[in-house]
Amino acid sequence: MNTQTSEKLYAEALENIVGGVNSPSRAYAAVGGGAPVFMKKGKGAYFWDEDGNRYIDYLAAYGPIITGFAHPHITEAIKKQAERGVLYGTPTRLETELAVMLKKGIPSLDEVRFTNSGTEAVMSTVRVARAFTGRKIILKFAGSYHGHFDLVLVAAGSGPSTLGSPDSAGVTESTAQEVLTVPFNNVDTLQHAFEKWGSQIAAVLVEPIVGNFGMVRPQPGFLEAVNEIAHQAGALVIYDEVITNFRFMYGGAQNYLGVTPDLTAMGKIIGGGLPIGAYGGKRDIMDQVAPNGPAYQAGTMAGNPLSMASGIACLEVLQTPGIYEEMDRLGKKLEEGMLAVNEEKYHLPVVINRIGGAMTLYFSNHPITNYEEAKDTDSELFGRFFKLMLERGVNLAPSKYEAWFLTTEHTEKDIDDTLAAADDAFAKLAKG
Ligand code: PMP
Q1: Taking the model in full, what pTM does it have?
Q2: So what family is this one in (predicted)?
Q3: Binding site membership of 402 for ligand 1 (Cβ less than 6 Å)
Q4: Domain with 135 in it
């Protein structure tokens, strides 16, 4: 495969943009390095790079592109709005329209507020939870990603009884001292942390289905225990549904699992590919937010008409009957197909975690239920697998911790072609 143009563009980008990328995970650092492929156009489940190579895409831009690239309904909505002006700085009917759609999908939302990114949405839920409870500490789970504001760039302390330490330069010790990090799917350590710090904890921040150390389900009863333990101590529960909202069904992971948080942060899919975030929850809690209450949060671009129009159009497409069932069916075919060919011919240590159209393939001998187990999987094999798939025209996320996302545009043939590519890739890995 000729990727000369990408290589040249990457060299130019490296001169002008720090690291050559505008978000670190786009560099291929986690898969052995090299020039990332530069894309030029996308349509449906495919995109084409600057050298004209076509790829079946499972990155979906890290999640938002659930209806594929350049979906006609979404493109039309964006065009129509662009012709009317892209930003006014006044309220529009579009904001309420999208807010009502979110509320219909996710019943725990009484009121919402739009932001421009998932990071801002999560950051705002934290501020609101602190305003509402008058407390400081946020408890989160190891390996989850909640954006790039200081508080969530804090690593675990040495156990549930110690506060965190900075995970990024530029994050202060004092910020780290406001965060507790415990393992996902472990009620005992959660309980232990609450025994020590319960009266100071403002909220538990959790991805109800994890998407950031691969796709990991909560074990039965885990989220119920989170609610019970947090509420008993007077803390709130915040679900970070930036990846999971409208991913497995028309609604949140919370509807899918039958559990309810106090606050929810959203993003990605709800903007149809344009910049967006949103947060919402119970009215008495959300009424902390300015102008109703004392917790400030704002944004020049927040609720901008282009993102609203694109998000509305995306959710309209997702109301098509059978659409989620089909992503689940094709996801299952892909999962089972890869496992079967590996079992039959190669015997590589492969584990797949899948929920609907979202999955992660780990090179591992053990199941993955938390971050420690996800870390303890073979990065080198994954890096080689990623590159072999790319050479065969299948684009995955360039990290063993990311998910593969099917879109509404992937077809049976795309899955067959992906399975053929995986068969070849496994064969090469098995040869050593
Ligand atoms: N929360 C979760 C669960 C995420 O996966 C992400 C981004 N991958 C974010 C928050 C941050 O969203 P954004 O990149 O839009 O700021």
Answers
A1: 0.98
A2: Belongs to the class-III pyridoxal-phosphate-dependent aminotransferase family. HemL subfamily.
A3: no
A4: 72-318
